[in-house]
Design goal:
mainly alpha; 2% strand; globular; single chain; 175 residues; Four Helix Bundle (Hemerythrin (Met), subunit A); 2 strands; two-stranded antiparallel ribbon
């Protein structure tokens, strides 16, 4: 293989190659607010381009921050770290999900401010963590709300029909 300057590496066979970028994942996340969907879609698009890991992780972090700000405005804090901790403190997310959210935040910060940037593996992890977080905190509550509405409209009642579901009152993107 050849280095960027076309010199041979110790393991080269004299063949120049290029890295194939996988197609966009188009993760199917349901019921996201428009602003959150926009940020997450931008992250996915950046992941399809070579050397665009930093903007991808920044947009994953942005999707997380917008999701928390729009869906949980009662969670206060001077920064995203405090807001994530507040989600766990108020039992909206479990400790494991809090850890994932902090991982997205940390990788996003490295992408924005770190001199060495982030690796492709870091960016892929941030994207996967963000998708899981968004589905858990936004998609799943809306699916539960819709199921409860269907059940109540049919005259059936679920055991938890009167319990509140987080993220009420948002404009959602229907997948």
């Amino acid at each position: 293989m050849l280095d960027e300057d076309n010199s041979e590496t110790p393991y080269s066979l004299g063949v120049k190659y290029s890295v194939a970028i996988p197609p966009p994942q188009n993760t199917e996340l349901k019921y996201l607010p428009v602003e959150v969907q926009k940020a997450f879609t931008q992250a996915e698009k950046n992941m399809t381009m070579e050397n665009c890991e930093e903007p991808a992780v920044i947009m994953c972090r942005r999707a997380l921050e917008i999701a928390i700000g729009t869906q949980y405005p009662h969670i206060t804090g001077k920064n995203l770290k405090e807001k994530i901790d507040g989600l766990e403190a108020q039992h909206i997310i479990p400790a494991t999900m809090k850890d994932w959210a902090h991982e997205i935040r940390s990788i996003g910060n490295d992408g924005a401010h770190g001199l060495s940037g982030v690796t492709r593996a870091d960016a892929e992890a941030a994207q996967a963590f963000a998708a899981a977080f968004l589905q858990y905190c936004l998609g799943l509550p809306e699916e539960i709300r819709q199921r409860r509405a269907q059940t109540n409209a049919a005259g059936k009642r679920t055991a938890a029909a009167d319990e509140p579901v987080p993220a009420e009152g948002a404009d959602f993107v229907k997948a």
